[in-house]
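ok trying this again, last paste got cut off
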Amino acid sequence: AGDHFRAWKEGRTGFPWIDAIMVQLKNEGWIHHLARHSVACFLTRGDLYISWERGEKVFEEYLIDYDWAINAGNWLWLSSSAFFTSYFRVYSPISFGKQYDKDGKFIRKNLPVLKNMPAKYIYEPWTAPKIVQKEANCVIGKDYPFPIVEHNFAKSECMEGMKGAYKRKEYGVDLKRGIVLNEDDNVAKKNVNKRN
């Protein structure tokens, strides 16, 4: 998970839509709310199955419009850890961006290494024939990384994990105390009562 987290944070996942968003976040300190949805879903329930808390800290570090309550609430929602239970609705790191930017202008702006990649392959450059990659001056695995996961397989694994957690009524893990939180967790209830 450590390598996958670093690749996500640094915009090196091999998924141009995700990487362009993370590069924009780091360079400009702001990303559109749908971009926030995409990278949050990718990190958590969509592909990497990494805790929302790690992503929340990255947003805290980079966002110029950072607000703890809004940020933490959105991460809880987008990871389906709280509020939103349709964990099976996943933002595709390949097709979601195409809805808004078929030619990949956003990707080309934030990932100049892909600026010459034909639009047909801009969201999935690893599918471009080697000759096309060479003509675009972007050979996958050399100039730009291969995807760190196979999206459909990773999504399926995440869905199984989420389905199991919901079935067991587990709503998350308290990493500081190393316990699973669920509706029967007396420790969580005591802590909530202390705040009230």
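PB: full thing came through this time. Confidence is low (pLDDT under 50) at residues 179-196.
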